[in-house]
């Protein structure tokens, strides 16, 4: 626990305001969604308790402190904002656990210390942020941070290894294969997976680079789209069923994770799946929160979400995506360790429906980070 900060379950009281770095943007293709998520969290945080420092990472990887009224943080989802290093003060985080601080990194002036940091909310989506990289840096700096650690973040981001661990834990996953650079899908794999298939970056998110393939003649085009984000490509068999999402949060009393009410996504767009446009730009999907499921199935969905969370050694939060087949079977699709926090994002919606509004949700996440600290848990 940082000096001067005292974690108190429920109250979150402290001897001074908690100094929180809200980290967003980043080098992945999900840069814009991260910015919009950060704006949502910034508006939800209680300023009587948190001294918030917005730090954006531009697409080249430069860190800059931005004003709270920056257009990057006030944009709506459809605006797709981008962090511009020229709009802020460039800083760097010291990888020194004895003095976790932000330093102004302008080479034309002497080093200036912007002070101690107590906790980081890394609202980064995709590679170079959600995949264990930023978590490793924060561990080196000795800083508490919201969300899963290095291993769970890296494993959940790489869908191949995520599925392997889920399957090894006895949890249901659908048929899939991995196609690496220079490879294509063999005839044997085509017969096993059947049509349609979904082709996606193995380490991506926000449905960027995903294609539904209904004819094998379109496979190369789908590979090209996926490889624009990641050279490693996942090909998944289509699962016939309802698309269900469930949020998972750790409890402040240390008694383990709990699951939200499930929600259902019904796609209405011509794309035939929950793509980027349907998620953030158009009205291409209907969200039912909570999902209209029988009580017994609802409880199985929640139990499966919690089991997946624990199998991957997640911490803090995650959104677990799955399918429910017409026979009532559950098939896991993905586990997202840092889901979106935009106005249309499912994670805050399912928790609001479960009795935890946006402000209470963000506060709980920060309190969990302060409770757990950094290092091995």
Automatic annotation (TrEMBL):
<feature type="active site">
    <location>
        <position position="206"/>
    </location>
</feature>
<feature type="active site">
    <location>
        <position position="30"/>
    </location>
</feature>
<keyword id="KW-0133">Cell shape</keyword>
<feature type="binding site">
    <location>
        <position position="321"/>
    </location>
    <ligand>
        <name>Mg(2+) 1</name>
    </ligand>
</feature>
<dbReference type="InterPro" id="IPR011761">
    <property type="entry name" value="ATP-grasp"/>
</dbReference>
<dbReference type="GO" id="GO:0005524">
    <property type="term" value="F:ATP binding"/>
</dbReference>
<feature type="binding site">
    <location>
        <begin position="236"/>
        <end position="243"/>
    </location>
    <ligand>
        <name>ATP</name>
    </ligand>
</feature>
<feature type="domain" description="ATP-grasp">
    <location>
        <begin position="163"/>
        <end position="367"/>
    </location>
</feature>
<keyword id="KW-0067">ATP-binding</keyword>
<keyword id="KW-0436">Ligase</keyword>
<keyword id="KW-0460">Magnesium</keyword>
<protein>
    <recommendedName>
        <fullName>D-alanine--D-alanine ligase</fullName>
        <ecNumber>6.3.2.4</ecNumber>
    </recommendedName>
</protein>
<dbReference type="InterPro" id="IPR000291">
    <property type="entry name" value="D-Ala_lig_Van_CS"/>
</dbReference>
<dbReference type="GO" id="GO:0008716">
    <property type="term" value="F:D-alanine-D-alanine ligase activity"/>
</dbReference>
<feature type="binding site">
    <location>
        <position position="336"/>
    </location>
    <ligand>
        <name>Mg(2+) 2</name>
    </ligand>
</feature>
<dbReference type="GO" id="GO:0046872">
    <property type="term" value="F:metal ion binding"/>
</dbReference>
<keyword id="KW-0963">Cytoplasm</keyword>
<feature type="binding site">
    <location>
        <position position="334"/>
    </location>
    <ligand>
        <name>Mg(2+) 1</name>
    </ligand>
</feature>
<keyword id="KW-0479">Metal-binding</keyword>
<keyword id="KW-0464">Manganese</keyword>
<dbReference type="InterPro" id="IPR005905">
    <property type="entry name" value="D_ala_D_ala"/>
</dbReference>
<feature type="binding site">
    <location>
        <position position="334"/>
    </location>
    <ligand>
        <name>Mg(2+) 2</name>
    </ligand>
</feature>
<comment type="pathway">
    <text>Cell wall biogenesis; peptidoglycan biosynthesis.</text>
</comment>
<comment type="function">
    <text>Cell wall formation.</text>
</comment>
<dbReference type="GO" id="GO:0009252">
    <property type="term" value="P:peptidoglycan biosynthetic process"/>
</dbReference>
<dbReference type="InterPro" id="IPR013815">
    <property type="entry name" value="ATP_grasp_subdomain_1"/>
</dbReference>
<dbReference type="GO" id="GO:0008360">
    <property type="term" value="P:regulation of cell shape"/>
</dbReference>
<dbReference type="GO" id="GO:0071555">
    <property type="term" value="P:cell wall organization"/>
</dbReference>
<dbReference type="InterPro" id="IPR011095">
    <property type="entry name" value="Dala_Dala_lig_C"/>
</dbReference>
<feature type="binding site">
    <location>
        <begin position="333"/>
        <end position="334"/>
    </location>
    <ligand>
        <name>ATP</name>
    </ligand>
</feature>
<comment type="similarity">
    <text>Belongs to the D-alanine--D-alanine ligase family.</text>
</comment>
<keyword id="KW-0961">Cell wall biogenesis/degradation</keyword>
<dbReference type="Pfam" id="PF07478">
    <property type="entry name" value="Dala_Dala_lig_C"/>
</dbReference>
<dbReference type="InterPro" id="IPR016185">
    <property type="entry name" value="PreATP-grasp_dom_sf"/>
</dbReference>
<feature type="binding site">
    <location>
        <begin position="206"/>
        <end position="207"/>
    </location>
    <ligand>
        <name>ATP</name>
    </ligand>
</feature>
<dbReference type="InterPro" id="IPR011127">
    <property type="entry name" value="Dala_Dala_lig_N"/>
</dbReference>
<feature type="binding site">
    <location>
        <position position="159"/>
    </location>
    <ligand>
        <name>ATP</name>
    </ligand>
</feature>
<dbReference type="Pfam" id="PF01820">
    <property type="entry name" value="Dala_Dala_lig_N"/>
</dbReference>
<keyword id="KW-0547">Nucleotide-binding</keyword>
<feature type="active site">
    <location>
        <position position="345"/>
    </location>
</feature>
<dbReference type="GO" id="GO:0005829">
    <property type="term" value="C:cytosol"/>
</dbReference>
<keyword id="KW-0573">Peptidoglycan synthesis</keyword>
